[in-house]
Amino acid sequence: MTVPEAFRDRMRAELGEEYEAFMVEYEKEPLHGLRVNTLKLAPGELSLTHSLEGVEWCPEGYYYDGHMGRSPESRAGLFYSQEPSAMIAAEELGVSPGERVLDLCAAPGGKSTQLAAKLKGKGLLVSNEIVPSRAAILAENLERMGARNAVVTNMPPEKMEELFQSYFDKILVDAPCSGEGMFRRDEVAAREWSMEHVRSCAARQLNILASAAKMLRGGGELVYSTCTFSREENEGVCEGFLAENPDFELISQKRLMPHTHKGEGHFAAKFRRIDGPRLDRSAESKDADASLYKAFEAESLNVRLEGRFTAFGEKLYLTPSELGALGGIKALRPGLYLGDCKKGRFEPAHALCMALKKEDFRLTAEMSDAEVDAFYRGETISCGEGKGWAAALWNGHSVGWGKMLDGRLKNHIPKYLRG
């Protein structure tokens, strides 16, 4: 691995006697990690052929050997591949079911899916990403994990602060940074590093935190995290934030370094807003017409979903009631994507299938590993008797919709997931 000499000089000056141990560890192959999705199973229930070792700071996190790829476990959303150090930020936030939570810089979704699991389907998670293409990936990952109460937005922080004044109980700002902790995974980040880039990241991080501060309610907590080692972007940003926000106090600061903890490295600081109100947002006045969905639900499901129905064109969503009015919010996904209302019929979305459990479906078809792969290639699979919408299952976990007829299950996996 090639890293800039200026970076080495800075780390040598900061770490002193620890520098050699840092570089020895830093030049090794990166570690692989995964986090069990507790929306679908308990940590001890995940059974893999890979060797698993627990991550100290995350009860659901594990190190593993090898590459998971497009395994049935992955397609079923039973785990999320995540760098082990990165798991600490959501753990530090201490989210409880029922809270209003914001992940302000959320893509690709590792921390958002972790927060969604902690909410257990109760309360509200707003996952924001300013880059549209990355916001789409974020939505797909929340979908695969079966998150029901997540809203995916695509907005600059300064626009969000106008709509969510003193609103959230908990906020995570995993800020864009110089990425020094990712050098051994990302050669481009190493080549593009400079102290000028570090300073520009620090200025941007302070601006993002300024918006986050306005969206946190009195008594609420905020975690600021990065995957970089620079004091300018970590402790320096924290000091600057506190100087600009006297109504906040620092609760804790943690650094994970490659030579002291097994991972790429991460920084997490936790703040509390001492004073301020907790404000609600104006309520939505009218539900969208959900009659086609409710007819589908009565015919195909054993569960009745409750909430506020929202329509964007043909697409129907179940929006968390805690969100309030959608006016002004640029939402890529305003809640759980239920499906499309097309010419007097309802076609269920993949997101709905992934959010439900085996017992929620009237019709199911259990599949082998090979059949799951074939199903995701778009093939039709042999199945039991029945007619109508059915959930394809792997080991009792949903992997997608199919249309069952004459002992065959016709594939309805979205095109963007096939392959």
Alpha-carbon distance between the termini?
Answer: 33 Å
Give the overall pLDDT as a whole number: 94
Count, helices: 13
Q: Quick one: overall form?
A: globular
Report the structural category.
alpha+beta
In spatial order, strands of the major sheet run: 10-11-9-8-5-6-7-14
The Cα radius of gyration reads 23 Å
Low-confidence stretches: none
Keywords:
419 residues, alpha+beta, eight-stranded mixed sheet, globular
3D architecture notes:
Helix content is 29%, strand content 28%. It is an alpha+beta fold. The strands form four sheets. Strands 10-11-9-8-5-6-7-14 form an eight-stranded mixed beta sheet, with helices on both faces. Helix 7 packs parallel to helix 9 and helix 9 crosses helix 10. It is globular and about 70 Å long. It starts with a helix and ends in an 8-residue tail after the last strand.
Give the secondary structure arrangement, pairings included.
Layout: H1 5-15, H2 19-26, E1 32-36, E2 52-55, E3 58-64, H3 72-75, E4 79-81, H4 88-93, E5 100-103, H5 110-119, E6 124-128, H6 132-144, E7 150-153, H7 157-163, E8 168-174, H8 187-192, H9 195-215, E9 216-226, H10 235-244, E10 248-256, E11 266-273, H11 291-300, E12 308-312, E13 315-319, E14 331-333, E15 336-342, E16 345-348, H12 350-355, E17 364-366, H13 369-376, E18 381-382, E19 388-394, E20 397-405, E21 408-411
Parallel strand pairs: 5-6, 5-8, 6-7, 8-9, 17-19
Antiparallel strand pairs: 1-3, 1-4, 2-3, 7-14, 9-11, 10-11, 12-13, 13-15, 15-16, 18-21, 19-20, 20-21
Helix pairs in contact: 7-9, 9-10
